[in-house]
Specification:
Blueprint: H1 5-38, E1 46-54, H2 61-67, E2 75-79, E3 82-85, E4 88-91, E5 96-104, H3 109-113, H4 123-140, H5 150-172
Antiparallel strand pairs: 1-5, 2-3, 3-4, 4-5
């Protein structure tokens, strides 16, 4: 049984349609959590967490930052055995440290974790499957219209413009 160009277009259109409906909610989740990830250096959708603990004594600023997991910790002033930094203070004699961190609200955090999945997490199979589905959607779009038609030609032109825009974006970042 020979697959003609028209039959192949019909098959690809059907697959494109069905896969598109399956992944629409995933696209919404990834796009919204991607926006949150873009603003991860701000307070957007975050709340303050007050931390109090006792840690090792006599740490310098660099070691303190590593122990309490604060990047770029800078000591603003020292009064006696108390080191003050933007987020709180540390008593070098007792090891008492009090500081404030910002964390995403609990309901949004799982969605943003999708963007950071690694091969150590079973979720990465899901993200790879989603990426393959998106790639298929991109490729199958070329079977939506018959080659040589105005709709197909304008689709190719828009694709080339998108590729150029992507390259420029990568070069500018």
């Amino acid at each position: 049984m020979e697959i003609t160009g028209a039959k192949m277009r019909r098959i690809m259109r059907d697959l494109h349609n069905k896969i598109g409906f399956v992944i629409v909610s995933l696209v919404v989740i990834y796009s919204l959590s991607g926006i949150v990830q873009t603003y991860r250096d701000t307070s957007f959708l975050k709340h303050d967490i007050n931390n109090e603990k006792t840690i090792e004594t006599n740490l310098d600023a660099e070691k303190l930052g590593k122990v309490i997991k604060l990047k770029n910790l800078k000591v603003e002033k020292t009064e006696g055995s108390i080191m003050y930094f933007k987020e709180g203070f540390y008593n070098t004699q007792t090891g008492e440290v009090k500081y404030t961190t910002e964390e995403l609200y609990g309901w949004i955090k799982p969605f943003t974790e999708l963007h950071k999945s690694s091969t150590n997490n079973i979720v990465h199979y899901f993200t790879i499957g989603f990426a393959v589905a998106l790639f298929f959607m991109c490729v199958s779009a070329f079977w939506m219209f018959k080659p040589g038609t105005k709709a197909f030609s304008s689709g190719v032109i828009l694709t080339v413009l998108g590729i150029i825009a992507s390259i420029v974006l990568v070069l500018l970042s």
